[in-house]
Amino acid sequence: MIGVFDSGIGGLTVVKKIFEFLPEYQVLYFGDTARTPYGNRGKEVVKKYALEAAEILIKNGAKIIVIACNTASALAADFLREKIKMPIFEVVTPTVDKALQVTRRQRIGVIGTRATVNSKIYEKLIKARDKKAQVFQNSAPLLVPLVEEGWLNKPETKMIIKKYLLPFKLQQVDTLILACTHYPFLHQIIQQKMGRQVKLINPGEETILSLKNFLNQHPKIAQSLPKNNQHRFLVSDANDKFRQLAVNWLGQKIKLEEVKI
After folding, report:
1. Is 210 left (phi over 0), alpha (psi -120 to 50) or beta?
2. Which of 96, 131, 171, 196 has its CA 20 to 30 A from that of 233?
3. What is the overall mean pLDDT for the chain?
């Protein structure tokens, strides 16, 4: 199975892209809902949580791991690759590649959790590929809890988003990386606030396109993955809010399986 994990519901934006680009493959999802968000945690804690999440996926049959969390991708991807000998995909690198492809004036914004922004992983990778690129970052710690709570269209959410986006508008970025897989839930509002001239980059889409390319190049691995729609959704704390948002986002009924950490 293709195993996907996130701190909570945000990774379902990545699962949705699997359904779109790799619809034949079975997905195993783990959302660490009991410990969300990861974005306010220290590096060692994130590494510990990420390893535990990956081990849950492997125990349940995952043959490929997708880290559907920018914080875990930034702080724990290399650590997981040292510990786990199977293909591991993270959301940062393909997102950076896409941003550099589409930026017109090399003015790129990055909005994410505190941990992701403080790691400066996006700035480092962008600058390594294009020294002339300018990177403007801003953390948005309130957005993950708002998404997890289902406050997607509340006036308060729109007001907070407007405040977080103001620095990017002042810097006149032409490309904005949604450096948290929760943020695509808010894509429409963010696009409205930034204007159509600004290109938004969805990490989930770029990551799954990267995975699709990998599977095309490694047919033996692709053939070893089960192909059916018996998807499984594991969580560390089952709750009705997660189930409701998941059903609305994915457009299908799901059964949550609670697992102990």
Report:
1. alpha
2. 96
3. 95
pTM value is: 0.90
- Assess whether 208 carries a catalytic annotation: no
The active-site residue, picked from 69, 76, 126, 161, is 69
Q: What is the pLDDT of residues 26-71, one digit of tens each?
A: 999 999 999 988 988 999 999 999 999 999 999 999 999 999 999 9
Active site annotation includes 161: no
Of the candidates 15, 96, 180, 235, the residue annotated as catalytic is 180
Q: Does domain 2-90+205-258 have CATH number 3.40.50.1860?
A: yes
CATH 3.40.50.1860 fits 92-203, yes or no: yes
List C-alpha distances in Å: 142 to 37, 60, 91, 135.
Answer: 10, 32, 21, 22
Residue range(s) of every CATH 3.40.50.1860 domain in the chain: 2-90+205-258, 92-203
